[in-house]
Known about the structure:
Elements: H1 7-10, E1 32-35, E2 39-44, E3 50-54, E4 68-71, E5 80-87, E6 90-93, E7 106-111, E8 120-123, E9 138-143, E10 154-158, E11 163-166, E12 179-183, H2 184-192, E13 196-197, E14 256-257, E15 269-270, E16 281-282, E17 297-298, H3 300-317, H4 344-347
Amino acid sequence: PFAVGDALKNAGIDVHDTTAWGHDATEDGSFFTYYRSGTITTISGVNANEVTGNGTLWQKIWPRHEWELKLDADGPGAWTPVGYWVDGTKLYLDLPYPGSTKSGTYTLRMPLPHINVLIVRHDATAKGVLSWEDGHIQFLGASKPGGTLYPKGARHWSWTTKGYSATNSTEEQPSMYGLAVTLEKPLKYYFEDRPYVDGTTWSGGAWPDQNKIPPDPPNPNGMLDTLSQVEDQEDKLGPLDGIMGDGPNGKWDGDYRTDDKSTWHKPDQLNPFDINNNGLVELPVAMDPAKVNPADEYDLKQVLRHTITHEICHALAGDSHSSDPACLMYKWSVDWKRQDYLSDGYRALLRVHNIRR
């Protein structure tokens, strides 16, 4: 669901959802004014966002990200924000045009002047922001058990970028907002990817003997054990069989990782961001399921709310981040509970155009 944290409210800024607003002075009683001059010749380009018109006479000075374009033959789900204007006959959309029509009559709509509106889009199709991202969580490596930093070892994973903002130049910020976007696939995969098989559980003596007839029960415990409790202690998909209290048995004892992403959604497998397997992700990332702090666990709605609020602030202030770890806009993702606070330094960057009179 769409929800924002209280960071802007606590900074003295009122936030209104204008989706259903109307006005008695517009042609259809909606909150929009319209432009329909000329026709669309093509919608093309590698990203399906290059729009060419004939007789359209578009103005390059019109605000970016607030105008939305739709071919008249397509349904309401096709409205797409304008990224920038090239000239009177060409523009680029912020996102690929989702409609099936590529030419014909069109409509441009924008909020009733002189109110600037920030558009927040939830993208259900994009896999990521960066070219190498595929939406899934990504294995970076592991720290073998030992030493003072990771005495029980640590698995290192990252998530695909869950949102972005099309921010404006310094010159444009005083007159128009950016575009805030959240991505559905990376958000879902953050919670749903399960790349670890829940294997045998080590008792501290010997592994269950899987070669016996009948074999000992595999006794998976439903949680992602620390690397100090599995045979594959370097998380390399190649354990040294027989290193923890048993002889070599040709089995991967303990929980182990698989890189076959087609198997990552099996319900009996495990997620490295939810090691106690209760449906909530941990941040800071937890290493030992026995020591998970409930205050550092979050559901999908909380992560989405944090992402929305963060990207809205980028759309208001530009692409810079904060150096305050308590701030919503901190440069690192240290938790998902900063949605109610903006540091004084970041508040000074916000550009809000609709001053209440």
